[in-house]
């Protein structure tokens, strides 16, 4: 741990106003400066209301240090935090690759079962970026499978439009097989792909990636970007 933490100007100070009970090795602490974060019990210091609480780090970045009543629990300099972030990214990527590879055959079977336009869509993403499989395929495939079910259930663009205007509970009644794992983004993309599948199937493979609103076209490998690179 770097020794110059008191010279680090990326420091927030406050007083603990709330401590939630220990849960799975962590206290949840709310400070007078508005922050709520976890404090690990591994440091051997139990946070209490009224304690002086210090955190290090910039807004929008991970907390890289904590102190209670001037006792430093842990601290990383900005450079050390960058190293830690890179390490965690590598570990996270390795875990996702391992998980995907353990299910590769299952994913291939599910893709093969899709209607041709949706299968072509996934194959286009796969061909564009070898890492797309483990980075984005589970997210995209879930949307494509839901789109296939929706198109089979409603069959026309008008029926899908009418269904999309229903509230959630009415949609559940009309379409009880709806997956319970959707976010607003995945549900919206599933409906969009279902509509294209029955109305304009030639556009299915060209539609933006499901993850695009979260990651951007370049990262997601959207069709338009792939075509621009090929020119």
- Based on CA inertia axes, which overall geometry fits? elongated
Strand content: 15-25%
Question: Counting H and I runs of at least 4 residues, what is the number of helices?
Answer: 10
Total domain modules: 2
How far apart are the first and last residues' alpha carbons, in Å? 51 Å
**Taking strands numbered 1, 2, ... along the chain, how are they ordered across the largest sheet?**
3-2-1-4-5-6
Structure explained in plain terms:
The chain is of the alpha+beta class. The protein folds into 2 domains: 5-79, OB fold (Dihydrolipoamide Acetyltransferase, E2P) (Beta Barrel), CATH 2.40.50; 103-230, no CATH class. It contains 10 helices and 6 strands; from the N terminus they run ββββββαααααααααα. Helix 3 (116-128) runs antiparallel to helix 4, helix 4 packs across helix 7 and helix 5 packs antiparallel against helix 7. The protein is elongated.
Condensed summary:
This protein is an alpha+beta fold and 231 residues long. It has helices at 78-102, 104-112, 116-128, 132-154, 157-164, 168-174, 184-199, 212-215, 217-220, 223-230, and strands spanning 11-23, 26-31, 36-40, 52-56, 65-68, 71-75.
